[in-house]
Automatic annotation (TrEMBL):
GO BP: any one term: regulation of DNA-templated transcription
SMART domains: AAA, PAS
GO MF annotation list: ATP binding; DNA binding
Superkingdom as given in the UniProt entry: Bacteria
Pfam families for this protein: AAA_lid_14, HTH_50, PAS, Sigma54_activat
Keyword Endoplasmic reticulum assigned: no
InterPro entries xref list: AAA+_ATPase (IPR003593), AAA_lid_NorR (IPR058031), Homeodomain-like_sf (IPR009057), HTH_TyrR (IPR030828), P-loop_NTPase (IPR027417), PAS (IPR000014), PAS-like_dom_sf (IPR035965), PAS_fold (IPR013767)
Domain PAS stretches: 10-46
Protein name per Swiss-Prot or TrEMBL: HTH-type transcriptional regulatory protein TyrR
Amino acid sequence: MTAKILQQFDGQLLLKIINTLKDPIWIIDNQGNVLWVNQAAYDFFSALQVDELVGQNVIEMEKRGLFTPSIARLVIEQKQFVSTTQVTQNNVHLLVSSDYIPDEKGDIQYIVTHARQLSQVINQSSELEKIESILQLYKQQIRQLILQQKNQQYEDFYVGKSKVSLHLIEWSQKVADIDTTILLTGETGVGKTAFAYSIHQLSSRNNKPFIHLDCGAIPESLIESELFGYKKGAFTGANANGKLGLIAAADQGTLFLDEIGEFPLHLQSKLLQFLQNKTYRMIGDNQVQQADVRIIAATNVNIMERVKEGTFRKDLYYRLNILPMEIPPLRERKEDIIPLLNFYLKKFNQKYGRQHTLSKNIMDALYNYSWDGNIRELENLMERLVITSAGPKIDIDDLPSDFPLHQSQQMLFQNVEEVSLPIYLEQIEKNILIKAYNDTNSTWKTAKKLGVSQSYIIRRLKKFNLKIREKELVEE
């Protein structure tokens, strides 16, 4: 039946049918040359003062800045279906999809491209998500755009441009709608809270509560009532009307259990029961309550060590550790430092009505600083510099007197007259070696960073009596 119906349609009639669509449609050859576009494409690109599209080459149009990226170019390069966001010269965001029609050998013969303004997709997202045929990529990109447009306190997570940060963002997009427990690990200040919030915002729970409980900041005696709540008259001093816990408050949303390693041992079985069955009992209540809550936990300690010590249940650890992710410290993703410095400089300039800039000297110095306090330390320092610096350009002299980098700069010169020049220079070289090795954890990488041979580095380590202890270079 289908074949008989199609026989009634010639090529011109099919093109007329496509021409009635309100979304731009392009037909392109395997070299990127435009063979045909529908009327909607003409209408849209008239705003860019492109009078004739047929005969144009989309790769050349991309080079001219009319739009980026060229999705046809991506199909030619990847030889597969591609769907992504595209930005035009007049800053219109499009959601574009493209696939190819193969020839007899399976090579690309024609490319068909479809576009739609992303703002229209966002407005229709609630309806689109009900349709099973809408690609998961559409939902992720819509939520990503919404998240970036929101004015919220966790936007610094998306400042990172290093491979590590981009991998973390990609991972968060993959796991956002996988409704199971996530365990985030990493040092204090690396951005675990921001990462947890981004996962919540990318998930289908993004319009429901995101509740943050710091397990290390609440007295052990109060955690049970804070988390599970209590009934009226449950204990002396309780609220006369009872209290709903954070689990109830997070129903349909996400509960972020920060510093989970500090969670009291005697309550861990109760938390495990909730993770397994989504059920719990309020204090003083025999009735079982139920809540649909996604749990994200985080810790800066080694939970397995706590398990060995007997202060953390092994079964709870395995239940939390279904989707683990370690967020590396800032010193291991140095490509993020400069973007973060600029981000917080702009943020605090706007907050305090300043117009400060950073000198190259302080940018270089802060780039090479170890940042033991990670992003939190960087943020606090930038706020302090913006508030206290007198001149328009912030330089090394503006660093607080108690900041380690400032102290090390002063120490280089304060006792130079008390020792001979060779001893003084050796001390400087030793400090440089320790810093370079602790940044790279490799004698080969240290040599490459300092522009010398690996054998030279090894000889200097022996001369200065420096030893490697637990991946750090220390002085014996």
